[in-house]
Amino acid sequence: MKIKIIIAYIILCFSTISCSHAQETEFSKKALEEKIIATDGNFIAFQNVLNQYKGKTLVIEFWASWCGDCVKAMPKIKELQKNNSEVSYVFISLDKTINKWKDGIEKHQIKGDHYLANNGMNGSFGKAIDLDWIPRYIIIDKTGKIIIYRAIETDFEKINTTLKSIK
Hints:
- Strands 2-1-5-4-3-6-7 form a seven-stranded mixed beta sheet.
- It starts with a helix and ends with a helix.
- It is built from seven helices and seven strands.
- The chain is α/β, with parallel strands linked by helices.
- A hairpin with a 4-residue loop joins strand 1 (35-38) and strand 2 (43-45).
């Protein structure tokens, strides 16, 4: 009897841990309502950013100009863009200031649409999308479904393979 209880407890614990890292297929209402800053200085709800890409495959990169791993991954994202030119790219920076953000875009010649979530990873937007590392990549297919919710700079092979498979 005790063994059955222990086994049931282990299964319950494993299930709980597995579900806590489940693949998201859509953003939370809170995330969609969060406002980020466009390059023109205006605030825009994340939902409105996503609406601009309906019917398109979208790669979202979360980055910052001060992030060494982000800068190191720039050649890989540029190669990804070159090999997947039909895909749209959105870059959401976590820089502390608008000037640092815009300087980073120019310095690294980042092609795509740009936004700033100026409260960092621990701000309300970062928390709403479970942002725990940058660079982080999210892939959304043409139907608006999240295909990859959490990829980092070491996952470019997975990202590229995924983009090729959802064309």
